[in-house]
Amino acid sequence: MSxxxxxxxxxRRRALAVLVTLSFGQAGAMVATAFAxxxxxxxxxxxxxxxxxxxxxxxxxxxxxxxxxxxxxxxVGERAGQSYAAAxxxxxxxxxxxxxxxxxxxxxxxxxxxxxxxDLAAFKGWIARGLSRLISAAVTIPxxxxxxxxxxxxxxxxxxxxxxxxxxxxxxxxxxxxEAHSDLRSRRARLAAAMAERLPxxxxxxxxxxxxxxxxxxxxxxxxxxxxxxxxESLSATVRALPDAGAGLAGALCLGTCMHLGLGIPEAxxxxxxxxxxxxxxxxxxxxxxxxxxxxxxxxxxxxLLQTPRMPATRIEAGTQDAPAIELEAAGLPGGGRIDLILxxxxxxxxxxxSGSGKSALLLAxxxxxxxxxxxxxxxxxxxxxxxxxxxxxYLGRQAPGLAGSLRREVTLGIGRMxxxxxxxxxxxxxxxxxxxxxxxxxxxxxxxxxxxxxxxxQAGLLLARALLARPKxxxxxxxxxxxxxQALGRLLDHLASVGAASLVVTSDAxxxxxxxxxxxxxxxxxxASSVSSDS
Length: 536
Prior knowledge:
This protein is an alpha/beta fold and 536 residues long.
C-alpha cells in the first residue's frame, strides 16, 4: 500500500467538487454559444426585421462565463496542486527523518533533492493542470457532441470518427510518452546528483587537474539529458498537435455532410462553432496525457523511496530514573563478536577498538540515529534510543546535526533547552571561538551549509560549545572523528562530570585514556574466508 497522501483529502475533495461545477458551467456556455450563433445566422439569412438581441446577449454572456470558469478553474486547480505538493513534502520529510543515517548515506544527495523539486513539480502539475483539465474535458467534449447531435445526427456521425481517432492516438502515444518521461527523469537525476557532488568542490577539482575531464563528463551528461528531453518533447508535441488535425478533418466532414444533406448556413456555422469549442478541451486532454505519465513516473519513484527502511515509530518518553545509562546484552558487532556493557549514570568510559570494529556505528545506534544492532537487550536510559526526548542524549560525531543559519541556532541545536545569549557567549568563548565570533559578526552571524565557512578546528570548537550548553544524561563522543584536541576534550569531560552525565568516548588522546580508565573494547572484524580452487 502506498504511503503517498491521498489526492482526495480535505480541501482537495472540495476543490474537485468546484472543478466539476465549473466544468458543467463551461459545457452550458458552449451549448448556449453554438445555438445562439445558429440563431444569429438564421436572422442574417432571412434578413428579419427584429435584431436577435437575445442571441447576441447569450453569445456575449457565454464568452464571459467561459472566461470566468476557466480563470477560476486555473486558480482552484493550482491551489489543490499546491496543497498536494505540500502534503507530499511533509510525508517525504517525515519519512526521511525516520530513515537510519546509513540508509540516507547510500543515496546521493542530488537524487534525494530531486524528489523535492522535479518530482513535486510533476505531482503539482497533475493536480493543478492535469486532473482539473481531465474533469473539464470529460464534461465539455460530450456537451459539444450533444450539440452536433441536436443540430443533425449525421453531423455527429461525421465528426465522431476523426475525434475518436484523436483520442485513440493520445492513448496509444501515452505509453511511449511514459517511457520517455522515465528516461528523462533518470538521466536528469544522474546529472543532478553528479553536479551536487562536484559544484561545492569546483576549485579543488580544477587545482587537481580534473577540469577537462569533468567538462567532458558534463558534456556527456548534458547530451544524454538533451537527447531524452528532445524525444519526450517530440512525443508530447505530437500528442498536443493531434486535436488540430482531428478538428480539421472533422470540420471538413461536417461541412461535406451539410452540403450533402442540404443543411443551411446557420447549421453549418453552428457545427463549426461546436467543433471549435471541442478543440480546446481536446488540447487539454492531450496535455492531461503528458502530465499523467509524468505523475505516474514520479509516483513510482516516490513510492520506492517511501518503502525504504525506517526507524520504528515510538512515543517520546523521559528516560527511566533508576536505569543505567547504557545496557547492552549480547549486542552484535561488525567483527562478528558480541558485547555486554552496563554503563551506570555518571560513569565515563572509553570505547576502543581497531578501525572497522564498529565504534562509530555503535555510537550512532546508541544515539538513535541508526538501526539498533541485534541484541538481547539494547537500552539507553531504560528506553529504546529513538524514544528518548531531545537533549537527554548528546551525540558529538560526524553525523551531529547542523543547519545553515545563525551561530546561535547552530550551537543550541538538539540540546533540549534554549539558553540566553549571555550563556551562549560564555560557552562559545570557553570553546575558543572568540575570533570566529568576531569574524562572522556575533551570535547572529551566518554558518554556511556543511559549516564550510569554518576551519576544521572551528567546527570542532562549535560542537564543544554545543556540549558545554547541554545538560545531557548521556554523552556519546567520537572525539577522534571530530578532531577534539587534548584541551578541548579535557574541558568537555570536566563539563560532563559537573552535570552528572554518563559518557562513552572514542579517543586516542593519552591523557584522556588515563582519565577514562579501562576501555570498552571492540574487536577487529573477522576477515572473510576466501575460497581457493585447485586443479585435481
